[in-house]
TrEMBL record:
One of its GO terms (molecular function) is 1-acylglycerol-3-phosphate O-acyltransferase activity. The keyword Acyltransferase applies. This is 1-acyl-sn-glycerol-3-phosphate acyltransferase. GO terms for biological process: phosphatidic acid biosynthetic process. Coiled coil: none annotated. The lineage of its organism: Bacteria, Bacillati, Actinomycetota, Actinomycetes, Pseudonocardiales.
Length: 247
């Protein structure tokens, strides 16, 4: 169990009761866990490869004495029972392509300033890269990172590998046994000072997003001991190529 767990409520413990057995499906090893400070705001920027990621990541954070608060698709908050768990535990719904799309970032910024730990998957969903590498990401992570820079809140990049070996959403293969190895690598706080003082325009947001996800990809390269692709997989571009409409 975690040591010096920050103050939590009923739904955090209910979620823990559900998530710990799920996380047990893998043998998880964490490198750099000491970089997750025990109090104060923290932003964790992570890759996303399987539906098992949130339980595994939540348990990793919880074992380090923190309550994880996820930025999650709003559809999850409409699922009976599950919506009570994640909303009660403090997760934040993301309403895409709607008038409320920016509300999630406002809530996340407030949570960070209030000393909470936020987990974000910048890709927005499980990567569509056939080999599991991070794909082109959304720039919401850059907005949060710049908020962290302004308020001296640490931003940590985190790579995780192994969950897809247990459950691959795209092939629908679920292989819990024998238990698979899951490895998580947590960076030291990222130095974002080179972006300080610049206008928060689309160019900067894309640059910061690529900067952060490139770090995640580099960490993942170390975990996989494989060479990563030079570019991030772009689902829209791949679709155009498959239909013969590219260029």
């Amino acid at each position: 169990m975690p040591r010096r767990l920050e103050k939590s409520g009923f739904w955090v413990w209910v979620t823990a009761v559900v998530f710990y057995p799920i996380a047990w499906l893998g043998k998880t090893t964490v490198h750099g866990a000491e970089n997750v400070r025990r109090e104060g705001g923290v932003l964790l920027v992570m890759n996303h490869i399987s539906h098992l990621d949130p339980p595994v990541d939540a348990v990793f954070v919880h074992r380090n004495g923190r309550v994880p608060r996820f930025l999650a698709k709003d559809s999850l908050f409409r699922t009976p029972v599950f919506k009570r768990m994640i909303s009660g535990a403090g997760s934040i719904p993301v309403y895409r392509a709607s008038a409320a799309a920016g509300d999630s970032l406002v809530a996340a910024r407030e949570a960070l300033r209030d000393g909470k730990l936020i987990v974000i998957y910048p890709e927005g969903t499980i990567t569509r890269d056939p080999d599991g590498w991070p794909m082109r990401s959304r720039t919401g992570v850059a907005r949060l990172a710049m908020e962290c820079l302004e308020h001296d809140i640490p931003v940590l990049t985190v790579a995780r590998w192994g969950t897809r070996d247990i459950f691959n959403a795209y092939t629908k293969k679920f292989r819990p046994f024998p238990r698979k190895k899951i490895t998580i690598d947590v960076s030291a706080p990222v130095d974002l000072s080179e972006f300080k003082g610049r206008d928060l325009d689309n160019d900067l947001l894309r640059e910061v997003t690529v900067f952060l996800m490139t770090r995640v990809r580099e960490q993942l390269t170390g975990l996989r001991d494989e060479q990563a692709p030079e570019e991030f997989y772009n689902p829209a571009r791949a679709k155009k190529k498959s239909t013969g409409t590219d260029g």
